[in-house]
Amino acid sequence: MSGRPASEFGAYVRAAAEADRLVVQPRMGFGDPALMRSGLAATRGAAARTVGTITIDAHTRVGQLSAVESALRDGVPLNGYPVVSHPAATTAWVLAGIRGPDFPVQVRHGSADPLGIFRAMTAVGLGATEGGPVSYCLPYGRTPLAESVANWARGCELLTRLRDGGVEPHLETFGGCMLGQLCPPSQLVAISVLEALFFAQHGIRSISVSYAQQTHPGQDREAVAALRRLCAELLPVHDWHVVIYTYMGLYPQTHDGAYRLLGQAAELAVEGGAQRLIVKTAAESQHIPSIEVNVQALEYAARSARLAPCRAADAEADSATYDEAAALVRAVLDLDADVGRALLLAFRRGHLDIPYCLHPDNRGRTLSYIDEEGRLCWESTGALPLKAPRRLRSRRVTSAGLLADLSYIRRKFDITQRAH
């Protein structure tokens, strides 16, 4: 370890954890460089322990750079920052005097082929980003999974070259957020761990593992404990932390309902021993949030975290969620010593199978549902290597039932608030 560059991003989050401060982070991205710079400055100035975010626009994510050029030429607003199309000098100006060891910045994107994005960000010394060969492939398009695995292997190699300039790259898995909702927590945990192992196998030494808040607080605590335990057991790097995402599905439409859900996400992060929280705002269901709304959400999340009760972070580590996640991870790792090849075999054989995911490389033989207590459960396990029966209950899945499950959180939090 002596002489190695430390990850600016990982070191910052670690220092915050040692001071019992949860790091809160927006999902902010603007096409206009001046607005992006203002957003970073406002995030840095928030009354919270924050890191900055540059979220990439939708066209850049899928390589449609001609559409970006047209938008920039015609003054059409983009839903994120086009890092590939803006000159490196422009991005350097956006960051100048704002980004540093006391305020690291992460690039967020959503691409199954991140190489162009990685080249653009590393050109200005940015080494923190996120995604994964599975999680940024299956939900987002029809890129073959084998192509995504190869792209991400090359992307990891590209990021490791930052060390030549004294920058240790940091990669965050998106596997704990597959499809945003209705993927049972055990599989979210498993894919997050597997993507972290993929990163490590391809030379990444600073990693964060994600988990997205789901439908039941107790089940979520079990999932975060399972994630921490599996990483401690399997991850061959020392610099890693857990990041919680505020609920990724249909968000409450009422202001109070949205903030109550965000508060529960902050509590989950603290109670689960996570070190960072991706924040959503009260405007999520209506429009792209403004800078001001983002800062308000960051400060609310930080206050909620300070008030959250402390508990033994691994109190739920021995659970059915852990047992299922461990079975999935170990079944995949048994397929091949190369994690990328193992992932491809796992999806081919149905050992990993995402409910309601229409990607051609996903078998689509698993189903899930929300039970009477609000827990997210397997309806059908397909070829997953689980001890659970293939069919867990006798009911016919209907479009009405699926829509009810998709809107479960929105209805629960909006109705509760309106009742008050």
Put simply, the count of helices is: 15
Question: Order of strands across the widest beta sheet?
Answer: 1-8-7-6-5-4-3-2
Helix/strand order, N-terminal first: HEHEHHHEHEHEHEHEHEHHHEEHH
Summed over residues and divided by their number, the pLDDT gives a mean of 92
State the end-to-end distance. Answer: 55 Å
Name the beta content range. 5-15%
Q: Mind telling me the C-alpha Rg?
A: 20 Å
The helix-and-strand class reads alpha/beta
Large-scale geometry: globular
| Helix content class | 40-55%
Number of strands: 10
Sheet having the most strands: 8 strands, parallel
Show unreliable segments: none
Question: What can you see in these coordinates?
Answer:
This protein has helices spanning 8-18, 33-45, 58-61, 65-74, 88-95, 115-122, 145-160, 185-201, 217-234, 255-271, 291-307, 320-333, 339-349, 399-406, 408-419, and strands at 23-25, 52-55, 105-108, 128-131, 170-173, 206-212, 239-245, 276-278, 366-370, 376-381. By secondary structure, the chain is an alpha/beta fold. An eight-stranded parallel sheet has the order 1-8-7-6-5-4-3-2. It has a two-stranded antiparallel ribbon with strand order 9-10. The longest helix has 18 residues, at 217-234. It starts with 7 loop residues before the first helix and ends with a helix. The model has no long low-confidence stretch (mean pLDDT 92).
Question: How do the strands and helices of this protein lay out in sequence?
Answer:
Blueprint: H1 8-18, E1 23-25, H2 33-45, E2 52-55, H3 58-61, H4 65-74, H5 88-95, E3 105-108, H6 115-122, E4 128-131, H7 145-160, E5 170-173, H8 185-201, E6 206-212, H9 217-234, E7 239-245, H10 255-271, E8 276-278, H11 291-307, H12 320-333, H13 339-349, E9 366-370, E10 376-381, H14 399-406, H15 408-419
Parallel strand pairs: 1-8, 2-3, 3-4, 4-5, 5-6, 6-7, 7-8
Antiparallel strand pairs: 9-10
